[in-house]
Design brief:
The chain is an alpha/beta fold. Among the domains are: about 100 residues, no CATH class; about 120 residues, no CATH class. A hairpin with a 6-residue loop joins strand 1 and strand 2. Helix 8 packs across helix 9 and helix 11 runs antiparallel to helix 13. It is elongated. The structure holds zinc ion (ZN). Zinc ion binds next to loops.
Length: about 425
């Protein structure tokens, strides 16, 4: 085996192609290794449409970026012919080492995708020595192609939720398969609200799925969502994710705190004490702030106590216990919010929970583990970290699919 053969290894160079020259350019930094491929003289080439063997009609030179050779950037140059098929006319032939229209070899793209699955895109791009925009294009292409092959024939239980790709705007909604332990994302799209539910149904049908098979849907309490699910998946049981119950009261608490802060002087550490309260690892300063809050007689303290009481509902171990605890919680909270008009946001939250009680309680009857239902937020968090700096909706969606969808092999060998 000579040096040329070693360099051609793994490149996908097959007959009639062979490596004819190699040249290290040391005037450039980093150094560039240039490999030239050529087809055997008089070789026949397959028409890209029908595969019929044709003689070369004419040639043009193309160049591809290949995997780095040690620290040197590596390029492949080849004169690629066009065939003149009697049936399909003049067409550029496909080369075995790169996909059509790409300036990278398949091996390069495969390495780039492996890196992008494991580290932030910007870091992966730096490692490969390409711009991040080009890496995003590679990711977009392979994710799109793999997504077309996704088979949803067995899908029967989904959870979905929306998140902002940037703070406060550009929403993205994702759907996960509750039967999948890992890589559960089956659909992601820009936007939020009931239109996403309809689009998901279209996607499901286009991928072999049957809307009538969907037996369980987990989502939030938005009336628009619930109406859309009723119309789109009429046979499904609807469960409200507990996360959304907590979120509802957390937001109400925050509104009360802001309104009250305009009227009275709050204990200094109330803001973060209230937001982080009783999670874990409170500092002694936070403990003191909470104690001060509880003793303060502020309405913010009342809203906070109501929110905290949710934990007691959550740990109910049976559907009966949960039902009893939820109705007790509603009674308790209703009595507490009579304290003043500032507590109106909390009252609204209580009313929403009362109205959706049945769907909230479904959670205790569901066969799906709560951890599975809560996977959604972890996915959003991970995709955000990986797509840092490029949170336009499309890159965010590509990243969600790349790290959390069951896409299988992204680069199929040719
Ligand atoms: Zn042809």
């Amino acid at each position: 085996m000579d040096a040329g053969e070693v360099l051609a290894l793994g490149l996908g160079v097959t007959q009639p192609w062979r490596l004819v020259s190699q040249h290290l350019e040391i005037e450039k930094s980093p150094h560039e290794l240039h490999l030239t491929l050529e087809a055997d003289r008089g070789a026949m080439f397959a028409c890209p449409e029908c595969g019929r063997g044709c003689k070369a009609h004419d040639f043009s030179e193309f160049r591809w970026r290949h995997l780095n050779f040690f620290q040197h950037h590596c390029y492949i140059t080849a004169r690629v012919p066009r065939t003149n098929c009697p049936e399909h006319g003049v067409k550029r032939v496909r080369v075995p080492w790169a996909r059509e229209g790409s300036g990278f070899t398949l091996l390069f793209e495969q390495a780039a995708l492996m890196l992008a699955r494991e580290m932030p895109v910007l870091a992966a791009a730096r490692e490969m020595g390409i711009t991040d925009q080009r890496l995003w294009r590679i990711i977009g292409h392979y994710v799109g192609a793999a997504l077309e092959r996704l088979d949803l024939a067995d899908l029967k239980a989904v959870a979905f939720d929306e998140t902002a790709s940037k703070r406060g705007h550009n929403y993205v909604t994702i759907f996960i398969d509750l039967d999948r332990k890992s890589r559960p994302v089956v659909f992601a799209m820009p936007g939020k609200g009931k239109e996403t539910v309809r689009r998901f149904k279209d996607f499901l049908i286009a991928h072999n799925g049957k809307p009538g098979r969907i037996a369980e849907v987990v989502c939030d309490m938005s009336p628009a969502f619930l109406a859309a699910i009723g119309e789109t998946f009429p046979d499904a049981n609807v469960t409200v994710d507990w996360f959304h119950v907590v979120q509802l009261f957390t937001r109400a608490l925050d509104e009360v705190r802001k309104a009250e802060a305009r009227l009275v002087k709050m204990p200094s550490a109330v803001r973060w004490a209230v937001l982080k309260a009783k999670e874990n690892n409170l500092t002694s300063k936070q403990e003191a702030a909470l104690a001060e809050l509880e003793a303060s007689g502020l309405l913010t303290a009342v809203a906070w106590q109501i929110k905290e009481k949710l934990r007691w509902v959550r740990v109910a171990s049976t559907p009966q216990a949960a039902k009893w605890r939820l109705s007790h919680f509603i009674r308790y909270a209703r009595e507490k919010v009579t304290g003043g008009p500032l507590l109106a946001p909390v009252l609204t939250a209580i009313e929403t929970v009362e109205k959706q009680a049945e769907r909230i309680l479904q959670r205790w009857a569901s066969t799906y583990s709560n951890a599975r239902m809560e996977a959604l937020n972890g996915i959003f968090k991970a995709a955000r970290a990986r797509a840092r700096g490029y949170r336009n909706t499309q890159t965010f969606i590509s990243m969600i699919y790349l790290i959390a969808a069951p896409l299988g092999q992204l680069v199929k060998s040719t």
